[in-house]
Amino acid sequence: MALLKVLLLLLGLGVSVNSGVSLQKRIIGGQNCDDGERLHHVRLESSNGDERIRCGGSLIHPEWILTSAQCWTSEPGWTNVAMLKVHPRTVIHYNQVIRHNPVIYTHRHHQHDIMLLKLQTPVSDVPVARLPNCRRLMNVVQVSQIHQTYGHIFYAGAPNKDICRTDYGGAAVHNGMIYGVISFGHPECACQRPLMIMDVCKYLDWIRYTTGIQ
Description:
Order of helices and strands: HHEEEEEEEEEEEEH
Distance between the termini: 33 Å
Strand order of the largest sheet: 5-4-1-2-3-7-6
Number of strands: 12
Largest sheet: 7 strands, antiparallel
Shape: globular
Structural class: mainly beta
Helix content: under 10%
Radius of gyration: 16 Å
Strand content: 25-35%
């Protein structure tokens, strides 16, 4: 099964790590990014006291983050925070509480697993990820299909490589452009089933309309 090559470089960025050893314990077949790579990656954290849920996301505009809808917790008492500049070799410079309601794609009263979050304060010194040129995707992924629960998806897999739970919402990138948002994996049976990835090309008009990206 075909795999977006760069997806493998993103695995594990949604978790907090303290050393190369701990990083290797959490990443299945992953590898370190170079210092200048994936600076658009965002760590999303929902917390309620000592309870925390972590996800990934991508800055696609100075004010907007693209991620999975399952990365938002709306129950009373929970706080949703976006942490920017979370490259493993950099210090976190931005930590914003998300106060705006999320924008989740909805079709015929059914929510798909793709979401846009608006920052309270735009950021100016974090490079954003580019939206895809869908005409040039070619043979990188399997044909997109509609999943009854999640929405428009494709699958990706490679021998001895997989994601962890906190990778949900992270980006599948090809040639510097986001083609997918990680929606669902199978950490309990790692490397045995393909990843489910939201097909960004199918939501491109909605993303552009919501964010104002041209």
